Amino acid sequence: MLLFVVGGVSAQGVVLSRDSAWVFSGNLAATFNQVALTNWVAGGENTLGGQATALLDLKYAQQRHLWQNTLELGYGLMKQGESDVIKNLDKIDFASQYGYQATQAWYYSALLGIKTQFTAGYKYPNTQNVISDFAAPLYIQLSLGASYKPDNHFSALISPLTGRLTFVMNQDLADVGAFGVKAGKFDPMGVRITPGENLRTELGGYIKLGYTNSYFNNMLGLTTKLELFSNYLDKPQNIDVNYDLLLDFKLNSFLTARAQLTLIYDDDQKLPNAAGKPVAALQVRQMFGLGLAYRF
């Protein structure tokens, strides 16, 4: 797999002007992989795939004010043999966090988070039934609490008061109660009597930990994030977990290796098991790429 990244390199980001309190940084990438076989006795199939990702950060820091905005975008497709093109990455994740300094490293904080995806998702090879879609789900979250930021690398947000709205704007998914919304009602013939609800509200506690750093003269870049959410109103013991890890290793001036790992557990995100019963399970996504890279 080849990894192509667009941009320029800087460890601290781009200061927008000489006396500006704003700093802009990011990591942009596009990957491509191909396997082409002709008269290949050992067997196999032609494979073509690629993905594009962006991690952008805009931070304002002046006096006792700290305002950080991050946007994560990702989309990937692949085609194997004569099979249809399938999706292997789809992510939109925006967060805006404001903090007012209380002590040297602690801040009174508020966080607004928005998460969804670009296009419809399927449990391949079944492409007849949609299991997710743009704004299905759409998570909008507001958290109030305290944050700890001792340096430019580590941050922690602890919010005992977090409201989360889950929108499911695809009515077919809402009718079956996807992502925790109230399902619709159907008669014995399968005719819908009452549509499913498009909104679920939750009140709970939220913790977000983040760490970013570079090592070996900026050759190795590390970004990791852990989010935990417990709904006070419904099964608070079933904690939602979202973990991301991104490693970039600069092999030379042009060549970089990248590894990504995402782990998700959400009791409201369910897929049919072998018996056809919807169940929640640990979701895992791994990616390794090699090619051109750029961080700024």
Question: Would you kindly provide a written description of the structure presented here, covering whatever features stand out?
Answer:
The protein contains one helix and 20 strands. The protein has one helix at residues 171-175; strands spanning 2-4, 14-15, 22-35, 47-62, 65-80, 86-101, 106-116, 121-122, 130-132, 138-148, 154-167, 185-186, 192-194, 199-215, 220-231, 240-250, 256-265, 270-272, 278-280, 283-291. A 13-stranded mixed barrel has the order 1-3-4-5-6-7-10-11-14-15-16-17-20. A hairpin with a 2-residue loop joins β4 and β5 (65-80). The longest helix is centred in the middle third of the chain and has 5 residues, at 171-175.
- H and E order: EEEEEEEEEEEHEEEEEEEEE
Distance between the ends = 23 Å
Q: In DSSP terms, counting alpha (H) and pi (I) runs of 4 or more, how many helices?
A: 1
- Oligomeric status: single chain
Low-confidence stretches: 1-11
Strand content: over 45%
Strands, total number: 20
Strand order of the largest sheet: 1-3-4-5-6-7-10-11-14-15-16-17-20
Note the overall shape: flat
Radius of gyration: 21 Å
Mean pLDDT: 88
Into which percent range does the helicity of residues fall?
under 10%
How would you classify the helix and strand content by structural class?
A: mainly beta
Largest sheet: 13 strands, mixed, barrel
